[in-house]
């Protein structure tokens, strides 16, 4: 699953790459984004493409907090199918973390794309209404098993053309939308080990994404 990621692009790069017209949140670079935190998302609101923020993790009526939604389940559950048809967003990302076990040791690795300093993760959103009738926007990232055969889920990424369709509210055919979702193999990413400090979600500095040396063999692709 994708349960931690980074967003290190500056705001000018982000708005240019995604055609963002209005920024509704105080933006800053993030090096260790974790579930339940507020995260930047790109939405189409009427004629305007906006940068907003939402809670990362759904809180549907059955009480499960879902930061990821598997591609295969999107068509099976009416709740998710409705979000796919009507409530889609893009979650911008510079890299995502992978946790690898080596014996009794678990280490964090950071996956970045050599040609894409920031890329688009496919997301869906909803509004959670609490007992006091306050609304809280929340989102989930769509994932699938990694295409290189490793037993890991990776976020589904959208290319430039797919982003335009994904954010188009007039497109509601869920089969068409599901066909747009593709998982890039980890072999297309540069995956490198990072400091154990990333395990602490309070750590939010560039050291979280800095490559470090390890004593065991490099992650296999």
TrEMBL record:
The keyword Secreted does not apply. InterPro entries: SRAP, SRAP-like. The keyword Protease applies. Keywords: Covalent protein-DNA linkage, DNA damage, DNA-binding, Hydrolase, Lyase, Protease. Its EC number is 3.4.-.-. Belongs to the SOS response-associated peptidase family. This is Abasic site processing protein. It comes from Cohnella kolymensis. The lineage of its organism: Bacteria, Bacillati, Bacillota, Bacilli, Bacillales.
